[in-house]
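Data deposition worksheet. Section B asks for the primary sequence of the deposited chain exactly as it was used as input, without tags or linkers unless they were present during the calculation. Section C holds the resulting structure in token form. Section D is free text for depositor observations; keep each observation to a single sentence. Incomplete worksheets are returned to the depositor.
Section A, Depositor: J.P.
Section B:
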Amino acid sequence: MRTLFVVLLAFGLAACGHVPLSSIPKLKRMDFMTMEVEVLRVAVEMPDGLRVRPGSAIINLGLNESAGEPALQERIVLQQVPLSQSAGQLAGLAPNAQVFRIAEADIPRLEAMRETTRARRKVDPDDTKGTLTVTSGACRTATLPSGPLPVTTKLKTAPDEPYFTLTRNVDLRTLVPARQLQTEVPLCQS
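Section C:
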């Protein structure tokens, strides 16, 4: 039985957004064990005045306890891809999108998790399960505008495939209570 890896996207305080029905088949076909992690890209589109807070774009990998082995967690901070290096990869993204990838230095950590998964799957194929979540936080460059603050996230998993929408127009105001919005979405540091 294939290892089950659940892909979720969370924004802010680990709150989930709305996944379009058209993206569900693509998510089901994603396989963490064979994915080319070097080409994996996460794009975040926010309204003017909002940016992804530096250091907050993170991939969390988890492997459940199985075959008498303990559960494992791996937290990888994503690296922002400069727009000059994103040329040709921006098709289908908003002009203000920020794109992130796994840093080369972190790929061995991810590969180690895959090797552990393979070893556990040989011993206990039916009970080896894992998770992959992507989270990010926001900062503001100006006073927050009134009204909805829609955030869209997209994923690119292969070099010859376009980005597909992971979450669409998730209103940040519905994720963070109004009284906490100013502290949870602080001013961006230059």
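Section D:
DSSP finds four helices and twelve strands in the chain.
The two ends are 49 Å apart (CA to CA).
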